[in-house]
Design a protein that fits this description.
The protein is α/β, with parallel strands linked by helices. It has a single domain, classed as NAD(P)-binding Rossmann-like Domain (Rossmann fold, 3-Layer(aba) Sandwich). It is built from 9 helices and 7 strands; from the N terminus they run βαβαβαβαβαβααβαα.
Length: 265
């Protein structure tokens, strides 16, 4: 065993950026608490991560439900586990014009992308404050920096995560707990499929999608350095810079042209 006492808690750890972040933590000797809904996927990843010589605890929780978020931390406390690192990766979107999309699905997405994240983070902070240290990595997005026609609720949730992360980082600056936001752009994960977004122009050339391992490395290094945020990828840095220099209405127009369906005039 590389470690008997260092734990990292990772949501969305069975695929995409979350999986790659969990792998980096395992390689650095952190025991893992991995969270997802699917038991079978968790069991597969448990065996894979154990090959790094660490302890792996699987938590099958539905983070769309606040009760499951609270019970997750209660289960950890019962077992005397206090993670030093929290990675809030789990998140989803839904594609389409707001007037046409399913409100129930959008409420679920808000619960997952915002409510579960703030509950888990508050429980983590309350646990780690008395211990004098900890690291939080929140999955934000370049979507946090501009309005998002055709993907408006997702963009709104990430705008919240970005602003809130910066706010609590300032509050915690003398506590030993750091808060880092990772801002990826379009990345080659199952996100777009789950969002029913495969007809979007943004996916016209999938070769342009970022590698989730590269995105995870950018986020991991920034978290370990205690940085406030990192925008992953040069093109995404340029996108954010342009969004910062233009009006919201122009940014919304540009994003609409990028995200609308391929067959939309």
């Amino acid at each position: 065993m590389k470690s008997n006492n260092k734990y990292a808690l990772v949501t969305g750890a069975t695929s995409g950026i979350g999986y790659e972040l969990a792998k980096l933590l395992a390689q650095d000797g952190y025991n893992l608490v991995i969270v997802a809904r699917n038991h079978d996927e968790l069991n597969v990843k448990e065996k894979e991560f154990r090959a790094y010589g660490i302890e792996v605890i699987v938590m099958a929780k539905n983070l769309f439900q606040a009760g499951d978020v609270y019970s997750l931390y209660a289960d950890l406390a019962l077992n005397g586990i206090s993670p030093e690192i929290l990675v809030n990766d789990a998140g989803q979107g839904v594609y389409g014009k707001f007037q046409d999309t399913d409100i129930h699905r959008e409420i679920d997405i808000i619960n997952l992308n915002i409510i579960s994240v703030i509950i888990l983070t508050k429980l983590f902070i309350k646990d780690r404050l008395e211990k004098g240290g900890g690291k939080i990595l929140n999955l934000s997005s370049v979507a946090s920096k501009s309005p998002g026609p055709w993907h408006s609720v997702y963009h709104g949730t990430k705008a919240f995560i970005q602003s809130w992360s910066e706010g609590i980082r300032e509050e915690l600056k003398d506590s030993g707990i750091t808060v880092t936001a990772l801002l990826p752009g379009p990345t080659d994960t199952d996100f777009f499929n789950k969002a029913d977004m495969n007809q979007s122009k943004i996916l016209k050339d999938r070769d342009d999608l970022a590698n989730p391992a590269d995105v995870a490395k950018d986020g991991y290094d920034a978290m370990m350095n205690g940085d406030d945020k990192v925008i992953s990828g040069l093109n995404n840095k340029l996108t954010v810079a342009m969004a910062n220099m233009t009006t919201d209405s122009m940014a919304a127009y540009r994003m609409s042209e990028m995200q609308k369906p391929v067959n939309e005039k």
